[in-house]
Amino acid sequence: MVLAQYLLSFREVFEAALLSAIILAFLVATNRAHLTRYAWYGIYGAAAASFALGGAIWLAYGTLTKAHQVLFEGVAALIAVAVLTSMIIWMATKGRALKSEVEGRVEKAVTQGTILALASLTFVLVFREGLETVLFLTPFLVQDAVGTIIGAVLGAAFGIGLSFAIFLVGLKLDLRKFFFVTSVLLVLLAGGLLGYGVHELIEYAEIQNVDLGWWATSAYNLGLSAGNPAAGIAPDPFHHKGYIGSIFAVLFGYSQDPEWGRVTAHLVYLAVALPFMIGAYKPAWFTAFVNRVRSAFRPAPGSLPKTGDE
After folding, report:
1. pTM (global) more than 0.90
2. CB atoms closer than 10 angstroms to residue 37
3. DSSP per position, 83-113
């Protein structure tokens, strides 16, 4: 199952490639093409640092005990959700002015700073996306290293390809609509990831013999069989380990037997994040819906009671 890993990598790598393309195109357009190689130094350095960070996390995870691995997975998932949410909010509220903001920072680095300032700026902008990618993929990496690597490679390839098409081939794309659609998917994914993180923390508490009471009890049980891989018995297709249920498990945090803590965290997150994100982008259908609701509660002309002066 590589869909979630693909989506995360595609969105983050696309943003990094988009930022890089904006910087490079701005330098060429302002007759500073000779400085592009320093921007490339920053891009290469950010990519190398991201891979190094991912490798370090993977190696560190392998040295942990089983209990600490569970704790690590839970904490990593919660951190990833926090960073993912902040990124979604930033893009929803600031993304409209992304190009002008980046160009302004490049202009300042070139005219008031040094060549090192340009390389550093490019490094910071691209590495921020790389750091986010590593944080997002870490919970998936420790569960399925091969699937995560495949999804990340595919997502990175398509992200770079799309940004290349936009800037060099002239492909027309409504970036705000693109970021809105992908942000909806990422919010759904983040909700599931939050639920998974809470599940791992509950599991760690059980290992430590800590009683969490009602929060650790089962919210529901669909009664689906997990099968027996050792005996060659496949799980029920709709079990979260089955070939259908696993897709929803990876993308949206679906589980056939979740704890109340997991379900509560998942639903509360979606109830807060989805309306906020949709309201920030204000798609046409959302604006029309809000206006319709307002008109339904707005008094009709002439229906207001007259005052004594009238």
Report:
1. no
2. 11
3. HHHHHHHHHHHHGGGHHHHHHHHHHHHHHHS
